[in-house]
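INTERNAL AUDIT FORM
Audit reference: QA-55
Scope: verify that the stored structure record matches its stored sequence.
Auditor: D.O.
Record contents follow.
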Amino acid sequence: AALWLDLPPSLYLAVLAGLTFVFWTTFRGEVPLFLSNRATAEAVLGLLPRTSGLKVIDLGAGTGGLLHRLAQARPDARFTGVEHAPLPWLAACLNARGLANLAVERSDLWRRPLGGQDVVYAFLSPRVRLRLWQKVRAEMRPGTLLISSSFPVPDVVPERVVEVADRRGTQLYCYRL
């Protein structure tokens, strides 16, 4: 079909470059681009503790849509998004404009320290859940909360599971350290 369309060779290079900037090192880190919807953002908002000065981090923030909604609704809290892929990171930075309580970092989530955070939100591949749990347990203080979207941590019983009213049937697995 590609030969029949007689497309210029540079188009294939452009498509490859575009996909690379979106998915970056997914093959190495096993963390593809998963986007959280508005219903999930509303459910997460209801799970956040009502303490002033709350610090929330989204590991693998994608385009920052979830964090944008949370930061708008909770100006008393501080939100940080961590995204490694260049294009989603750029979109997240654009989503963060005008919100003083939202920062987006372009870094590897496995190298990003979690100390000082009150809540960690992650919508990551099920293949990395156990590794994420080990990181959270090693770096976060007792009483903090891990919200794992769609995939539970293997062999760990969540404190609570929240059913999100969306088409995907999203579940939020809540683990208190």
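Auditor finding: record pair retrieved intact. Confidence is low (pLDDT under 50) at residues 26-30.
Action required: none
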